[in-house]
# Entry
Amino acid sequence: MVFAAPGEALARAEELLGADPSPLHASVAHQVIGIWQRDFGDTRRALAHLRRARELAARADSAEREADVLATLGVALVHAGRTRDGLAAFERGVARGTGHTRARVLYRRAYVWWVLGRHGEALEDVRRAVPVLRQADDVIWTARALTLRATVHLALGAVERADADFTAAEALWDTTGQEHDKADAVESRGLAAFRSGDVPAALRLLDEAEERYAKLGTPTFMLSIRRCEVLMAAGLATEALAEADGAIAALDGIGGQSTRKAELLLVAARAARLAGDPQTSLARAALAVRLFAGQRRTWYETHARLVLIEARVATGRASGRLVADAAAVAERLAAFGAPAAPEASLLAGRIALGLGWTADAERHLAVAARSRHGGPPLARMTGWAAQALRARAAGSARGVLEACRRGLDVLDDHRMTLGASELRARATAQGAELAALAQRASLVSGGPRRLLVWSERWRATVLSAPPTRPPADPVLLSTMTAFRELAARAEEARTDGGRPAPALEREQRRLEREIRSRTLHMRGEGRGDGDGGRFDVGRLLDRLGDELRLVELAVLDGRVHVLLCGQGRVRRFEAGLLAEAEREAEHVQAGLRRLAHPGAEARLPLVEAAGARLQELLLGPAAAHLGNGPVVVVPPGRLHRVPWALLPVLRDRVLSVSPSASSWLRAKDTAPPPGGRRVLVRGPGLASGGAEVPELADRHAGPPPPARSGESPRRVTGARSGGAGPLDGRPVLLEGDEASVPRVLRELDGAALAHIAAHGAFRADSPLFSSLRMADGPLIVHDFERLDRSPYRIILSCCDTARLASVGADELLGLVTALLPLGTAGVVACSAPVNDAAVVPLMLALHKGLDAGLSLAEALRDARAALPGDAVHQATGWAFSAFGAA
# Structure
C-alpha cells in the first residue's frame, strides 16, 4: 500500500504499532514507515525505523522477513550516502532470502546498482529476478523490475529495448491499483520520449506524472531531475536551474536523500552553465563531485567532472591540465557506455585547439565525430560540431561548411518536431557554434555572398514556418479565459487602490504556468523544409532592383559586418563592436523615455548625437553607399531595440526593418486578403483615449454593408480594395465592451488592415505573455497564434509593442514576431514608451498616407515629416518602426 496510497499506508502502520502487535507484524509496520520516510521524508528517521524492523524480524525468527527488511535498509543506506554499509546489507539479504523473497531483494539491489551508475551489475540482478517474479505471478514486482530494466537501458542509450520494457510494464500496471507506481511509469515514459528526441511528449508525460504524484501528496525529486534535463534540451536552462535549486532547498528542508541531492546539484550545474552562469555552475558541480565520490557513485561523479571542466573552460581557465582531465573523463564515460562520452571528447578537442595543440585536438575530435551518424539529434549535432572543428584545423573551408550544413539540418528536423514557437526559438541555441563556424569560414573563403547565405541560414529561423496552432483544448481555452479575467481584476485592483493584490497575482501566475505548460506540449507538424538553407541571393537581388537597398548586419567574433545588398551585388563593410552598439542603444532608449514627457527638450541634441554614434558603430563606411532610395535593415536579435529612424543617414528615408532577408522576401510575396476589411480597436485606459480611432472611423463614414450570415448586424463594418490602392469602405470599430479579446480576435482574422490603440505590456520574463490591454483583460501572443491568418497589415499605436526578447542563437519572441509567420506582411510598432497625445497626429498622418496607396514604410516616413518639430513629437516619430514589406 505504501506505493499505492502512501499517506494511508503510513497512517495504518502507525495505528498498528499503537495496538501492541506481534514482532512479525510490528516489523512490517516499521518497514512501511521506513519506506515512507526514505522516499518522502527524513532519511535519518527512515534508518531508525528500518533498523527496528530488522530487530523485530530477527526476534520473530523469520529469515524471509529479515531478508526483505535488509533490502529496504540497503536502499536507504545508499540514498543516505553510506554506500559500503548499504551494499553489505544487501549481501546479508541475498544470503538470508530464498526463492520469491530473494528475487525481490535482487530487484532492489539492481535499483541500487542503477543509483550508483553500475549498469552492468543492475542488468545482471534484474535478469536473475524477473523469471522468478513472473513464475510467482507477482505482477507488481515484475512490473517494477521491467520498469527498472528499461530505465537502465535508457541510461545506456538503448532506447528500443527500453520502450519494449516500458510497454510490458505499463500493461501490468493497468491491472493493479498501485497509483504511485503508475505515476512512476508515466514519468519513465516521459524520460523515454526525451531520450528518443520527442521533447513535447516528454514535457506532457512529466506534467501528467506530476499531477498523479500531487494527488498522492508525495514529493517529486526524481521527477524534478528529469524535467530539468528536458528543459535544458528545450533551451530553458534558466527555468531548469530555478527548479533544481528549489528542489534542493525542499530536500534539505526535510532531511531527504543525499543521493538525490547530489543528482539535483549535477543538473543545477549543467543548467547554470547553459544559462551563462559559469561561477554558479562551478560551485554546484564541485559539490556534486564531492558528494558522488563519497557515495562511491563513479558513473555520476564522472558526469559531474565533465560539467566541472566545462564550467572552468567557460570562466577562461583553459589549460593543458584541462585537456588531460577532459580526455580522462571521455575515456571513463566511454567505458561506462554513457551517451555523454562524445561530448567529453569534443570538449577535450576544443580546449586543445584553443591551445594550438592540433595533433591532440585531432585525436579527440575524431572520436567525438563518430557520433554524427547515429543516436538522438543532439548527439549527432555534437558529432557534426567535432567534424567541423576538425575541418577548420585542417584548413578546409569546404569541410567546415559541409559539416555545419549537416549539423544544422539535424537541428532543423529536431526543431520542427516542436510545436511551440518558444521551444523552436530557444532550441536554436544548440546550433550557435555551428552557425558561427560557418560564418567565419564564409568570411575567409567565400566572399560577401556566401557570408550572406550563412547569415540567413541561422537567422530568425523560427519565422520560417508558422507555429503549430494551439489545439482545440477545452481546458486550455477555459484556462486562458480565467487568466484574462483574473489579470483584469488584478489590474483593476492596482488602478483603484494603487496596491497590488497578492492573492490575485499568485493565481494569475499559476494560470500562466498552466497555459505555458499546455502550449509547450504541442508537437510540430512536420520536418523542416530547409527554407533557410535554400536562400537564393540572386532572387533577393532581383527583388531589390536598382533603388532599394537591404542592409544585413552579421556579427562575427563580436564585430558588426555590414552586408549591403542592391544593384545586383553584395558588398561587405566592417563596422564597430556589437557590445559598444548595445550600450549606445540602451542610452538612446533611456533618452527616448525621457523625451516622452514635456520638459526634457534639452536632451534632444544628446539623443541625436547618440544616433550619430550608433550609425558609425552599426553601419560604418556602408552609410556612404546606401544611395538615395528605400532601405531595409536586417539587424541581429541583440540589436532589436535600436530606433533605426534616429540614425542620420536613415532619418528621412523610406525605412523598414525585418528579422531576416528571407522573412522580407516572404512578406514581399504575401498577397493581401480579398475583401479588404479594416478593423479599428480602442482599448481602455489610454491617456489620449485612443483619440485617433474614432477620427479614423469617421474618415470612412458610410452605410455599413449587410451583416455576415448568422450574425447580428455589426456596429460598423467595411471593406477595402485589397491593399494595392486607396483604402475605402467603413471599418469595423471595436471600443468599450465590444473591444473584448474573443470579438477582437474574430474580427482580426483575415483582415486587410488592423489598427489597435491599446496599452502594451512587454514581458521580458515570458515574452509570449506580452499583451495588449482589451476591455476584458490582456490579449496575449498565445491568442494571436490561434488566428487562421493574422491581419495583412497591423498598426500597434502603443508603447513597447515592438519590444522583443532575444533568445536562442538569433531569435526574437514578442508581438511582432508572432504576427509575421501567421500572414502579416507589415507591422508598425513602437520600441519605447511614447507620449500618448503625440501618437495621435502621427497615426492620423500615417493613415493619410495609407489612404493614398503608400506602403507602411512610406506612410510612416511622411508621417514623421509632418509632425511638429518639438522634442516630444520628434521622439515619438523615432520610436516607431515599420516591419516587413507591406
Q: What stands out?
A: The CA atoms of residues 759 and 876 lie 16 Å apart.
